[in-house]
Every structure is written in structure tokens, then in C-alpha cells.
Amino acid sequence: MPVDISRSHRSESAIDVENERRNASVESLAELVPSLDKIASTQTLRRRSWSRKGGYLCFHLQPSVTLNFHSYLLDLEARVKAYESKAEESSVTPSSVAATSEILDTEKVIPEFSAPLQLTTSHDTDKDDIDKNPLIEGTAHLMLSPGGGERQYLGDSSSTSLGLRFQDFIKTFQSELNNGIEFDAPTQSRTNFSIRRNSFHDGQPKISLPPFAFAKRLYAAQYAYLGTIFSFTDMDSFEENLHEIYDREVDVSDKDDCLVYCEVLLTLAFGQMYSVNQWTSNDGPPGFEYFQQAMQLLPCLHEQGSVTFIKVLSLVGYFFQNLNRRDAAFLYIGLALRMAISMGLHQEVPDQNLDDRAREHRRRLWWSVYSMDRILCVKSGNPLTIADQDIGVLPPSRLPDEPEMCPATVLLHYTELSRILGKIMKNLYRRTRTENYSLVSSVQAILTDLSNWHTNLPQVLHFDFTKLDKEISREAVSIYLHYSQCINMTARPLVFHVVRSRLQSKDSTNNTSDWKTGLSPTTIAVIDTCISAARNSIAIMSTAANQNLIATYGYMDGEHAFSAAIILVMVNIAFPYNARDRAAMNMALEVLNGIADKGNSHIKSLHRLLLSLYPMTRLENSDKSMVQKQAPEALAPPPDPFAAFLSQIDGDNANAGIFSTDLGRGI
């Protein structure tokens, strides 16, 4: 695989030094994950580095490959008892680490797969039940907006909020903890968005379009990351619009013409963002120039709404989120959703002029805007824009001429996860509560929904954890990262509660007792599920990074990586030493560092926040280099926590729900 680095305006010696550092990093990661260093040289999508002076390097596309699940779940059930006798979950000594490594040499090294948790009501949850989410304690968070100015609201469900809250808690008894490192939230300067339509020179904006063939490649690049989980435009519509605008100038007096240009330019902006994995320009991230051009042409918000206008507002909002402009992203995606409501997209309408294809297009657009709005709201901690009870439109479905596995299939299941996100926000992170509220019961109900979602997921969309040395599909990566973070956001209040309780105990600095002592089976299973989901997220992202499938400047991948990493850092600080968790944490920091090193300043700030907590993590041995090389333990399948828990409360028949091969309904 060619090494993607930019060589513009840098000396050869500097390049040699950086190459040595990056090669060392790659070798280190290969040691951590021996099963991942055999990645095939041909990838689903290779991207290029970009230099303002040096041009493009290494870009071509290949068909994506979707992996099948095969019989892994059934095999895992048979291996549970064997692994229970080979590895201790609660505590690992240096000698036992070495012994475990010998065991792993004879086994196929694969990442831990956490089967969906199917919980039932347990009578012993009152042992450690808590009435209130500890992550919503105190007053709301306000932080300086990126680039200065007014303070902005940072909601309790935000992963950044969790990281800052945990850092503040640690500082209450570790005052010397890296006081020189403060969290910042860098972004593009607001002055970069000062261009407006009334500043056009000679009445005509300067629009720069790439060659037609290259524009189609940029469309394919954005489709691999964005088009598979949202439905805003298809290739035929994009080519039609591209042909329409290539041979003429934009009519700035025509709102619809401006919107066509906007949609094309925003598609190109995302295409460049997702096809470049290293960027050396100081003028903004990849795609920023196309985005600025689109902003020049954006019609006034009081103009008549349209389907194209809804698409454009959604894409503008999401690009702002990629710039870490959460405030602007929240405003624009909210405008898109409200415009969709004003046009009746949230309901089935009796319009005789709409054929089946047009109706389905409206449905897919609605659910795309809905899903994006839910993601941006909940992951920033903002209130929900619309209640599910107010939506009457049918879910996306397959058209007669479409194959069984079509864009609507991915959209349906991805959007269902976004709907569950709304329940997470409403039932876990809302500050006003009804009487007799139980956090554990609420968490239990949402995890049951996630279990049902996983049961209904078509086999073709399952992520095959047994074949991480093969090509992976980006849509499978996107779906499973979304799924794992839903588990993470559901369980993190209980994780934080238990972590804080252990650290607040008198002997917290030397406490090596089993963290499960005194906790109910439900709470133990929830926390185990959360840790397993974090491990799985990092295994997926590490594999994607090796296959050049990480969106370096995208919002989602960085959010998923940090969300998993903060959980792993927390448990490595508060829980007894565990080789798997230690290795997974190190791998998570490596993934974040890789994204930060390539120019993502926001991820760099989050990575620095985690590094400030790193000295607090528990070590079994003072030889850190030995500990950091124990990644096989993070990837080996340990005893399945769900099977153990369900056997306690439901008997042996409970395992049938975990290892069920019933795929449920499809489209």
C-alpha cells in the first residue's frame, strides 16, 4: 500500500524523519494486531493525499465487498467455556499475560464480539439501582464556542461532555493531573463564511468545477461514506445536474438554479473530504472551497421551500458538523427538518401527481433528514426536534425494480438506530423525570430494543469479525459503529456511576478488588456490554484504518473513536488491570492519534484530553512497553458475558436468543 503523505513545502530531511516515525507507528500497530498486518493491498476505496502545491496522489475506486457472518455466533457459544478456563476476566498478572499469549498462539485471533443483550426483568436490580443519571447532575454545561465569542450549550449526552466531566472528577483528587493541558475546540474562523450573495463582483460569483470525470469520482467517494447511510442524491440525478451546469453560468436571480449549483458543489465538497486522508492547506479542510462556493449561492431562508432546498440545508448542516461548528450544524439541520415538515414529508399525502417512485423519494429524503437530525442533536446533547408520535410517513422500502439489497435496506436499519437514539435521549438524558424512575430499568429497555434491531438486521449487513484480514465494506463499518455507540450511550451512565463509586472509595488508589462485587447481574451485564462494544468499535476502526477507510476529516468516525476510547480509559483507571482492556485502550489512542496526525485538529484536542488522563491508568507491571504489546488479549474472544448472565436469570434456554440465526423481516 503506498504511503499517503504530502511533500509540498517540506524538506526531504523532514519528510524522512516523518516517514520513520510513521513507519514505526505502523510497525507498532502491527505488533498490537498481528491478524491485521496481512491486509490485502487492493482496497474498497483508496484515497489520496492532497497538497495545495503538490496535487493529488493515489486515487482509484474498486467495488465494495460485503462480508457475511457465517457460523461465528454458533462457534462462539461452543468456545465460551473453553475460554473461561484459559483467561481470567478480573485480574491479569505478568505471568498470566505470557501464558495467555501462548494460548492465543494456538487459537485464531479474532476480536471480541458482543452478541446483542436480551435482558429480562430481574428481581435483584435494586441492589445497585440508582434513581438518576449521574451524567445529568448539576447545572448545564456551557463552553466557549470555537473561535471565541459567546458560550455554547454542551448537552449531557455528548461524548465530549462525558470526557470533560470525568476529567473534572479526576482533578478533585489528582490536582497535579496535567494542569497545563486544557481542552479546546478548534474550527475554521467565522471570517471564512463572510462571503454572501450581495458581495458578488460584476453580479456573478466565481464558481470552480473539476473535470467531469473527476467530479464523478468525487461523487463515488462521498457515496461510500455518506450515500450509503443517507439518501440525498443518486448518481443519475447528480450526472444530470452536472451536465446542466457545466456549460453555463449560474443564474443568481433564479432560486432553483442556485439550489442545483449548491447541491452539486456540496456533493463535491463531501467527495473531496472523504477521498483525501491528509491535508496540508491552512485554508480549511478538504472540500472547504466547494463548500464556500455553495454558501455563496444559498438562497435566503424565507424563500419557498422545495425538496432540493431540504437536501441542501441538510448537507450544509452536516458539513458544518464536520468543521466542529456544532451551533451552525444544529441550526441548519433543524431548518431542513422544519422545511420538510412544512412540505408534509413527515406524513403520507394524498397528492395525485405523485407516483410510487416520487413518494418513495420523499420518504427516503424524510428519513435521511430525520436520521441526521437525531444524530446531530443527541450526540451534541441537544433536545429532540420532533417526537416519533408526530411522524406518520411509511419507512423506506424497496421499489419493484430494485434488488433485495438496495440503498433503502441500509437506510431503513441505520435510521432505526437513529430512532433508538431518540429514546436514549428522552429516557436517559432528559433532566425532568417522572416518579418511580429507574435508570437501570430504562437502560434495560433500550438495550432490549437494540437486541431486537440486531436480530432483524439482514445477514448481508452483519460485520464479520472473523475476517478482519479481508476487505470490509464501508456500509458495514458505518452501521456497526452506529450500533456500538448506541450501546455506549445507553450504558455509560451506569459505567460512570460504578467508576466514580470505586474511585471515591477510601482505598481507590490500591483497590484491586473485583469491580463486579456487590453489583446486580443486570448492572454487570450492562457494563460488560458497554466495554465489549467499545472494544468492537476500536477493532473495526483499526481495521478500517489499515484499509484506508477512515474519514480523517469526517465527524462520525472521530466521534465513534473518542466515544469508545473514553470508556476504555475510564475502566482502565477505575477497574483492576485487565490485559484486553489495556490493549484496546492503547489501540484506541493509536487510532485517534492517527487521525490527529493527519490534520484533524478537533480530534487532536480530544486525544490530548485522553492523554491527560492516561497517567492514571492501572499498570500490572512497570514495563509499559510489555503491557502495550498485549493487543491479542483485546482481540481474543473472552467468555461471553451475556451467556453467563442470561443463564443466571433465564436458564439454559436464554442462549437461544443470543445465538439466534433468525434474520427477522427484510425489505
Question: Could you give a quick summary of the protein structure above?
Answer:
This protein is mostly helical and 667 residues long. Helix content is 53%, strand content 3%. The chain contains 22 helices and seven strands.
> Largest sheet, order of strands side by side?
3-2-7
Low-pLDDT runs of 5+ residues are 1-111, 113-127, 194-198, 622-667
Mean model confidence by pLDDT: 76
Q: Per DSSP, what share of the residues sits in E-state strands of 2 or more residues?
A: under 5%
Q: Radius of gyration, Cα only, in angstroms?
A: 25 Å
Largest sheet features:
3 strands, mixed
Pattern of helices and strands: HEEEEHHEEHHHHEHHHHHHHHHHHHHHH
Shape: globular
Helix run count: 22
Oligomer: single chain
Distance between the termini: 38 Å
List keywords for this structure.
disordered C terminus, three-stranded mixed sheet, 2 domains, two-stranded antiparallel ribbon, 667 residues
Structural summary, described in words:
The protein is mainly alpha-helical. The protein contains 22 helices and 7 strands. The chain has helices at residues 12-32, 72-86, 94-105, 159-171, 212-227, 235-246, 255-275, 288-297, 307-322, 326-342, 356-380, 407-428, 439-456, 474-504, 521-546, 555-574, 579-597, 601-613, 624-628, 631-635, 641-650, 655-658; strands at residues 45-46, 48-51, 55-56, 60-61, 141-144, 151-154, 276-279. A 3-stranded mixed β-sheet has the order 3-2-7. Strands 1-4 form a two-stranded antiparallel sheet. Strand 2 and strand 3 (55-56) form a beta hairpin. The model is unreliable at 1-111, 113-127, 194-198 and 622-667 (pLDDT under 50).
